[in-house]
Amino acid sequence: MPDRALTIVVANKAYSSWSMRGWLAVRIAGVPYEEVVIPLREANTRTEIVKYSPSAKLPALIDGEVTVWESLAIIEYLADKYPHAPLWPKDLAVRAHARAIAAEMHGGFVPLRRTLPMNLRRKIAPPFLDDAVQADVNRIQAIWRDARRRFGSALGVGPFLFGGFSAADAVFAPVATRFDTYGIALEDQASAYVAAILAQPFVAEWIAAAQEEPWMIPEFEPEGRAET
Q: How far, rounded to the nearest angstrom, does the alpha carbon of residue 12 sit from its chain's CA centroid?
């Protein structure tokens, strides 16, 4: 008997970086799924979210009687349930590194998150980056550079952090879109990684859906910049 479909519950695709991570993990797992989208900042948003997530936050994954919230927990649940899915590297030491950088991204970089909120609807003029934000940008580039040098390029199986597209890339995909949205100046290797992320089919599917959404949150919609 085939597995029943999982349900992944997400917020607006244009704005929700956390939802993007959980959804990408489901896509990497390659299993049947159903999707529920709950728009943020609506009168009934909280009422709808708590039907699925006890934390009143998204994403949430529903698997029969099992409910998992928080994007990293969703990734780990999927990795446990589908051990042959290419979520984490197979080698123990490499997998530990992938989990460490994913956890760093998940729990850190608050100045960057506040200054460059995710917006997949359009391009936005780059704001002033204070020292804290620039330090975040530099640290993220260093993470990418180190992973590509030690693991991605060495494995030779793809343009991502550990070769093929993995949970680590799913965790960093939203910040890659932020760099693209705001036209943040990056070193060449980081720019190439951002381009690879944006071209990845699952990421491209999410972005296309985001751009078709009818909902808009004004505080995340500053004046757009002309594309060059």
A: 13
